[in-house]
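Fill in residues.
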């Protein structure tokens, strides 16, 4: 059996405030996971692929989350309001299992 691919996602708190982070951490702790979506660079991510999230820029830096893709990659309005009208961003739905 071939293992599913793994991808590294990024989060820079200097560029985007993750306002739901504390609530989602509690949900992972209490319920074992939480549904979310994240912007991605790779369009090859498929359901079942493993995802890891690295925190950049502001300490503490490093891998801070893992989860599993629950959708194919799709286009939607850009998360950065300054870039929203220029081109869409690509996202994947996922379930964080460690956060």
């Amino acid at each position: 059996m071939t293992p599913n691919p793994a991808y590294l996602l990024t989060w820079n708190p200097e560029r985007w405030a993750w306002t739901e982070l504390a609530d989602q951490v509690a949900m992972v702790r209490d319920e074992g996971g939480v549904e979310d979506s994240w912007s991605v660079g790779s369009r090859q991510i498929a359901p079942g692929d493993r995802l890891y999230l690295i925190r950049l820029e502001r300490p503490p830096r490093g891998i801070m989350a893992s989860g599993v893709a629950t959708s194919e990659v799709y286009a939607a309005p850009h998360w950065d309001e300054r870039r929203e009208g220029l081109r869409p961003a690509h996202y994947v739905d996922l379930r964080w299992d460690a956060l």
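Strands lie at 6-11, 34-39, 50-55, 62-69, 74-76, 89-98.
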